[in-house]
Amino acid sequence: MPTSSGRVNRGPAAASENRQAVLDSARRLFTERGYHVPLSAIARGAGVGQGVLYRHFPTRLDLALAVFEENFSQLEAIASDPDAGAFLQLWERMVELTVESAAFVEMAVDARRSMPEYTGGERLQALIRDTLPRAQMVGLVDSRITVADVLLAHRMVYGVIATAADPADVEAAVQRALYLLRWPTA
């Protein structure tokens, strides 16, 4: 007597729902377990087979880039604010996203190494380049701070996260690092 797994294959009608379920599962598991979480776990978490996952995202990097695009949308929305404080809001959200999911920094490094056409780094630089001068003009950030300095500070924050011996200590360690990196005013 045949058994049923309880799942019904709805075929192409479920494609967009399946894609979103995979993205949601990937975001959650990348955050919880890191960039190298098994893709089979992501598929299971989405309630789909691995074939469905691979149909939408042929590689781990394709999947991570799709999830990461949501982060960029948030950062771009913040940077589009003409207020001088947009840089500080952008910086704060960059740090929050890095703490929430350091896996995306790993993904960006992987993309930079394996995809010469990857523009994530340039996009992030442009967001900083657009917002930093406004913050500097009103004295929110020292005029000597450069885009390269901001990116260096971000890599330092990631280093604190990546090397934390106990995940429970990450938040306090990041806050201490941010205190040490505080943006002095002019």
UniProtKB/TrEMBL annotation:
Keywords: DNA-binding, Transcription, Transcription regulation
Ranges of residues in domain HTH tetR-type: 16-75
Ranges annotated as DNA-binding: 38-57
Keyword Transcription regulation attributed: yes
Matching InterPro entries: Homeodomain-like_sf, HTH-type_TetR-like_transc_reg, HTH_TetR
PANTHER family per the UniProt record, alphabetical: HTH-TYPE TRANSCRIPTIONAL REGULATOR BETI, HTH-TYPE TRANSCRIPTIONAL REGULATOR RUTR
Name of the protein in its database record: TetR/AcrR family transcriptional regulator
UniProt organism field: Micromonospora sonneratiae
